[in-house]
Amino acid sequence: MPRLLRRPPRIKYLEAAGALADGRVRVLEESPEGVLRARITSSTGERVYHVALVIEDGSVRAYSNDNGTRLRGYVGYPILALLMLAGKLPRDPAVEEALKGIPWKKLNEKYKKYDLVIEEVKRITESRGVAGERLEEFMRRASRSLSSIRVYFDESLGRGSLTDYF
Q1: What are residue 14's phi and psi, to 5 degrees?
Q2: Which among 77, 117, 124, 159 is positioned nearest to 85, based on CA atoms?
Q3: Distance CA 130, CA 38 (A)
Q4: Whole-angstrom Cα distance, residue 108 to residue 104?
Q5: How confident is the model at residue 159 (pLDDT cuts 50, 70, 90)?
């Protein structure tokens, strides 16, 4: 039985936009049954996340093998990135460009708190010409959009034919 996922920490919207900017999201299939499958590589290249979405009326059934989704019960950045790509969450090309090459894992390990990482990311993006307020507005818009969608973790999307793609 699919379980409802919680809303993610704010930083996950930035991580998702960064994954798109870096070209780390590879769509593998958009099936006639409405299943969207993708492979998303982590910022270090060490991990590959397998993501599948079924977008329905006002809800999404999703599978991702990232820790935030599987273990912590929130919508992880791989799912967010695919929702952005599918047009269900907003995108901002300037924000994405400014987030290119951000070493997310390194920053998370260094600062150990998402709010501190966000402040460091703002410093980086400001040096690239995108103000921190624009990042804040992007996170607010994405969070507001996600609040109107119920996202359910559906383990069955990670079985069977999924292995054919990953």
Answers
A1: -70, -40
A2: 77
A3: 29
A4: 6
A5: confident
Is the entire prediction scored with pTM above 0.90? yes
> Does the residue 115 lie in any domain?
yes
CA-based R_g, the chain, Å: 15
Residue 163 lies in a domain: no
Residue 166 within a domain:
no
Domain assignment of residue 67, given as a range: 3-157
How buried is 67 (Cβ within 10 angstroms: 0-12 exposed, 13-18 middle, 19+ buried)? exposed
| Statement: residue 163 has pLDDT above 60 | no
Question: What is the count of structural domains for the chain?
Answer: 1
Asked if the structure places residue 107 within a domain, the reply is yes
pLDDT bin (cut points 50, 70, 90) of residue 160 is low
The residue type at 140: R
3-state secondary structure (DSSP) of residue 17: helix
